[in-house]
Task: structure prediction
Amino acid sequence: MIFKNKSKGFIGAIGDDLPSLIPIFIGLIIFFSVFLSTYNVYKDKTNLYSLEQEAVTISLTLKEEPIISNYNIFQHQCNLVNTNKKWTAFVTDLDLNSDNQKSINTNHIEDSIVTFEDEDGDDKNIFICNNLYKEIILDSENNFFQTQNKKIVYLFPITLQENTFAKVKKLYIIVWE
Amino acid sequence: MLPIIKNRKAQAAITDALFFLTIIVTLAVILFKFSSTYGDRVTLATNNLYFKEYSNSALKTIFYAEVPLDFSKEINSSKETDYLMTAIKEDYFSDQQIGSSKDINTMVINNNLDVSKYNLYNLIKVVMKPLPNYDYMFYLYNTNESKFEFFTLKVTNFDYESTGFQHQLDINATDSNYYLCDPLSYTTIRDSFSEVSDIYSSSIPLQFPTNGDISTINMTATFAIWPASVTLTKSEEGSPNAISNFKCKVYTD
Result:
């Protein structure tokens, strides 16, 4: 009986703390899962903002001139872009009849990009920036636009001198990780 | 005294643990709140930068693009083309008005005197087509005489459906209307747009030569875009909405 009184509420050194370990473990699990998820959100959003800011900076460089007067000027502007991100930019048509406007065909992007033959008619100049990633974008078998990488796609109306006309076009800027 | 403490030892430990849990949950809530709102301002700033840049580009495009001097919308087969702003200035030079009518909200499609006015209206529509969820306005404001010389507006229409709950409506965008308007003054514009959020605008000063008493008229070209909203089309009971205040006429082509 004396033994019973003495051990009331006492199971043992560890046994006594067992019930308190449950909320401690639950607390630790909650804390670390929320911390991990917050860290992931922070990392993802920070990456996304840096891509968005880079896309705007690239657009400012490419659109420095109000009119792109020829292919060489376009390439010159492309070469002025200074970034450590993967990026490209290309020009597509913008029809003056808004009913005829269509989205770019992501499976065959080359069909949508404005091309310009040089004076000899030998070379076909494609209005696309950044030779480093040009092949990736133009590769129709490996659809770039359907890969999992996070991408920022911005578009702007621009004016492009094409033969004798200054035409309205769309400038796409793509930045990805 | 000692047996009592011993008796309650396990209970005190679990109370400590519950306090610990409470602190952890509070911290978790703070972290969760931080993660859900993190970057809202940065998103806003980046969006501001992009849409501001878009409106700048649109304005530049309007000034530098060439258009056919007919109603065909086909520049390659057109007999004559010109830079849009040059065509507008030429039109304005002789009679100090853009188009055939003194009423700036009037345009007759297929009337040759309205070609430049139509091309301006159409080009703005074209450059904004890639952003269908955004409404816009573009105007040329004569600062010498404090009057509008051209004013176009795109407004998205919305359909209201009752959800069954009191004071709750389901709002769906249906189609868009393209207007030419003739607002009385800047005040009308300012009052109507005071409730529209997230407006991105770009302005540029221009000089229009004339053969009238004043050889050069100072104009301001302004282009503004904003996410489509019900603000401009809604009206308080018995009072006109912005479209009526601006004396707008809808155009389709």
Q: What stands out?
A: Residues 40-176 of chain A form one domain.
